[in-house]
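Sequence and structure are kept together here, with a separate record for every protein. A complete record is shown below as an example:
=====
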Amino acid sequence: MDVVAESKQESESPSKDSPEEKRWTLSDFDIGKPLGRGKFGHVYLAKEKRSNHIVALKVLFKSQLKQSQVEHQLRREVEIQSHLRHPNILRLYGYFYDQTRVYLILEYAAKGELYKELQKCKCFSEIRTATGELKIADFGWSVHTFNRRQTMCGTLDYLPPEMVESVQHDASVDIWSLGVLCYEFLYGVPPFEAKEHSNTYRRIVKVDLKFPSKPTVSPSAKDLISQMLVKDSLQRLPLHKLLEHPWIVQNADPSGVYRG
């Protein structure tokens, strides 16, 4: 998970035409304020003129994409994200390009990037951590596969031991990353953070998991994180069991004993 945006609504397409039927051009949009800046371009708030639908327009420069040799990665991102339909996945409505730039038409997440919100709040409450409404974005390193893989990619702090050690891995890496994310929400820092990258790698491989003294974090939350951050991927708590864990159930249920 590279980018996570916070939002509570699933948006419809910016036009009645599907992205496959519509040939977009820049003249179809009124461009507003910049929302962010990345390595390969910028993101702007925009309004599709025909429907008045608000979107985020991601503008990427072809020269920078070519220089970094990530054209294939962009094609994969577009191919995968444009076919995903889920309330917790940021929609990619379509794309178009001109001589110098590629434009991605994305769902606008009004509450912005989750990381910036975490920086502002320092850490989240348990109820927000357990039940927050999120939208996942940025699928450049994603693949369609049911097989085990060996590619090492992703943010260092979220890498599981099998990726650090360059051995085959499968979808259970997502359980590990979810455990790291949960820890960071509650404590404000990732669990295996260190000054040097080599030390971060070492802590991940050893699963050097420590819970700082913080009375506001319940034993139940620590138990869930401990069951996700397990070196043996086969022993990690599977997703369906994760949703049944008492900490998730109690925070999601208004009659629960513990509410963060």
Summary: The domain at 145-251 is CATH 1.10.510.10 (Transferase(Phosphotransferase); domain 1).
